[in-house]
């Protein structure tokens, strides 16, 4: 090449010059109710329980937790179907079984009472996933729940009072009002970070904007950093890239295609073997 001439190919960005994106690995999901749920809401209809390991008895739970440990996993998600009070009956014994094996426990216990949360914390649980909704029409019509918007803030306060760490989850696809008002609640409580889920459409629950990437941007404009959670429609190949472009820096199960694009765009791609709730809680949910 002659002196002073320039290559037609643009130089690739220096690795890490655009910052870092973290790819997290979802924990194996254990259902303490098996495939059973007292509710048949339009949001789930029990379909997500079918993809979880049956942990409805102490023996089944121990076996599933032991299998997770043997496969090198760092923890488990303890969840399941709801009872009539919208509680998921995760017991302190289930938390103790996981922690006794050296596993993290991400607990999704629904509207568990503060005394129950305190028992789980005493048994070794620390992180509690909390789905947050604020549109009464979504709460009644999609979730089929008689809970009120104020109950979600009360649940977060109960987890904090019991010594747990609440990790809020908001959902794109249930309408702009639910997302905006949920984000407003979290901001009013001091949250600066949250997990963003994307509604997986079903015959009874259809996606109603904003899109997941737009939700990342909307949350960012409200001062909330969004981590892209594991519940989302994987048929959109560009979603992860668009979320990174709009500010997401923590992604559950990032695809190899996205990781390759991110590296080529100047991002350092880091891997964390834990559920995204764990590093998110350590970063400081309240921006501290």
Written description of the protein model:
The protein is α/β, with parallel strands linked by helices and 288 residues long. The chain has one domain (20-284): TIM Barrel, CATH 3.20.20.70. The chain has ten helices and eleven strands. It has an eight-stranded parallel β-sheet with strand order 3-2-4-5-6-7-8-9. It has a three-stranded parallel β-sheet with strand order 10-1-11. The longest helix has 13 residues, at 58-70. The model is unreliable at 1-10 (pLDDT under 50).
Précis, in short:
With 288 residues, this protein is α/β, with parallel strands linked by helices.
Strand content: 15-25%
Helical residue percent band: 25-40%
Amino-to-carboxy terminus distance: 52 Å
CATH architecture: Alpha-Beta Barrel
- SSE pattern: EEEHEHEHEHHEHEHEHEHEH
Q: If you compute it from the alpha carbons, what radius of gyration comes out, rounded to the nearest whole angstrom?
A: 20 Å
SSE layout:
Blueprint: E1 20-24, E2 29-31, E3 53-54, H1 58-70, E4 75-79, H2 92-100, E5 104-107, H3 114-122, E6 127-131, H4 136-142, H5 149-161, E7 165-172, H6 176-188, E8 193-198, H7 212-221, E9 225-228, H8 239-245, E10 250-252, H9 256-264, E11 268-272, H10 277-284
Parallel strand pairs: 1-10, 1-11, 2-3, 2-4, 4-5, 5-6, 6-7, 7-8, 8-9
Helix pairs in contact: 1-2, 2-3, 7-8
